């Protein structure tokens, strides 16, 4: 989330990661703070944190990696160590058409946050592809779609595992963010009809179920979006259930999880 961090710091940190693990690091850049303004100010140490500065910050970040500041720019005298010549794969992240358009115009890969803004998925991908210009990074558009997935042995078990995340969403919408509720808290919560309807609408764009159900859901999503990659996020209460979900999904693709 670039508004929260100085471009020089990001360049040096991710340059170090790329130097340590060449070819294994992706740097995803987001335009939104991704948190409340107070926390964003604490991260950036200024009360003037704004996504409106994103184009300038992004330009500075790229220039620190490649050493391409104009001679007259004051930052031209700064060398981001060890970012120079240790450049990770750069992605733009987004949940709207703005970042999609920027990613396309810069010829960068684009990752869309379908897991929390599904209504914008297809429009944003269309904007990205329509505005794409070939670059040194890419010759053709390359899109990733992030999706919430919970996989278990049965549909019923997966729905139970997904319930704490759904309640967490309800509380967030009510202005009461907090830790992920336990299964016991979730089972005891007195849902209103409005809350149940909000959860049903939210989970409609998630992939929750048995391996058979998840396979079909992910296949449908990939076909609708024509995504080059899917990124799976699994928010469940117990870590073992999360690992089990990833194991089951990996087995669908014939993969062995690390």
Describe this structure in words.
It is a single chain. This protein has 3 domains: 1-91, no CATH class; 95-137, no CATH class; 148-252, no CATH class. 47% of the residues lie in helices and 12% in strands. The protein contains 10 helices and 6 strands; from the N terminus they run αβααβαβαβαααβαβα. It has helices at residues 7-20, 37-44, 54-66, 97-106, 121-131, 155-173, 183-188, 193-203, 211-225, 239-252; strands at 26-29, 89-94, 110-112, 143-151, 207-209, 229-233. Strands 1, 2, 3, 4, 5 and 6 form a 6-stranded parallel β-sheet that branches. Helix 1 (7-20) crosses helix 3, helix 4 (97-106) packs parallel to helix 5 and helix 6 crosses helix 8 (193-203).
């Amino acid at each position: 989330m670039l508004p929260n961090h100085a471009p020089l710091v990001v360049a040096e940190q991710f340059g170090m990661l790329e130097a340590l693990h060449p070819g294994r690091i992706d740097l995803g850049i987001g335009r939104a703070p991704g948190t409340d303004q107070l926390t964003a100010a604490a991260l950036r140490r200024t009360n003037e944190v704004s996504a409106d500065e994103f184009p300038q910050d992004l330009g500075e970040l790229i220039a620190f990696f490649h050493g391409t500041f104009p001679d007259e720019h004051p930052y031209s005298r700064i060398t981001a160590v060890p970012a120079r010549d240790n450049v990770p794969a750069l992605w733009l992240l987004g949940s709207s058409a703005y970042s999609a358009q920027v990613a396309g115009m810069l010829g960068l890969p684009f990752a869309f946050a379908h897991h929390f803004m599904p209504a914008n998925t297809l429009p944003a991908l269309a904007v990205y592809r329509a505005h794409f210009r070939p670059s040194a990074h890419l010759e053709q558009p390359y899109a990733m779609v992030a999706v919430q997935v919970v996989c278990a042995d049965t549909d019923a078990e997966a729905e139970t595992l997904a319930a704490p995340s759904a309640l967490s969403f309800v509380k967030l919408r009510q202005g009461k963010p907090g830790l992920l509720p336990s299964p016991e808290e979730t089972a005891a919560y007195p849902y209103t009809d409005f809350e149940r309807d909000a959860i049903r609408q939210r989970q409609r764009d998630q992939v929750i179920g048995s391996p058979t159900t998840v396979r079909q859901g992910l296949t449908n999503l990939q076909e609708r979006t024509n995504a080059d990659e899917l990124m799976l996020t699994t928010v469940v209460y117990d870590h073992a259930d999360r690992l089990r979900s990833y194991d089951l999904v990996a087995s669908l693709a014939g993969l062995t999880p690390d």
